[in-house]
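Materials and Methods. Structural model of Ribosomal RNA small subunit methyltransferase E. The 244-residue sequence of Ribosomal RNA small subunit methyltransferase E from Rhodanobacter glycinis was retrieved and submitted for structure prediction as follows.
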Amino acid sequence: MRAIRIHVEQPLAIGCEFSLPAQAAEHVARVLRMTAGAPLTVFNGDGHDYDAVILAVGKREVSLRVEQCRRIDNESPLRLTLAQGVARGEKMDLIVQKATELGVSRIVPLLTERSEVKLDAGRAEKRLAHWRAVAASACEQSGRARLPEITAATPLQAWLDSLGGDDALRLALLPEGTQQARALNFSDAGGLLVVGPEGGLGERDVAALVDAGFAGLRLGPRILRTETAGLAALAALQALHGDI
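The predicted structure was written out as tokens:
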């Protein structure tokens, strides 16, 4: 039986007692039908799993006590940032979920020349909270004890202007790219991978990326959808240079 892991946003330590957030409590009590005395693992993103025991289950509350702490060392040695052109609806959820499972360190939602998704300030904040919840759920399932950082949706040029001068390898997934995944060399700084939205990257986008030192990465002879392209690239890079 798969171990039940729950993400919580609070400090954790052996011996501490606390109540689960409302949504997690409802899942444990009503969906999983767990009772007092049952074991449960919680994590807060600090790189540890905390083995806990359920103290009580009420209608709206589940209380726990932490019994043990275990360091989890399953982060990929290849630090990758996925800078993804924001895709519509469930496509973006899928990208965030699977990128998290594939071990990405950071996700930057990008607003590009051909972006079809328009986000005002209020909607952008809600989408960011939603994407972070999707990533937390993916960590629960995949066993990761560190959550990938997810930034607010950012215009491509603003993100490029914010980049420092580190040694991260800069790549953009382009059908006309000449770089091949197996021939790349990564430093300890890892890499930045840019993927366009449904309509692909526009000419101004590509020009800005080239000016910022990004090389075109080509996966093969077929053009992939945005929800496939980044995930295929991440899987290939992790298989060739990471821990898959």
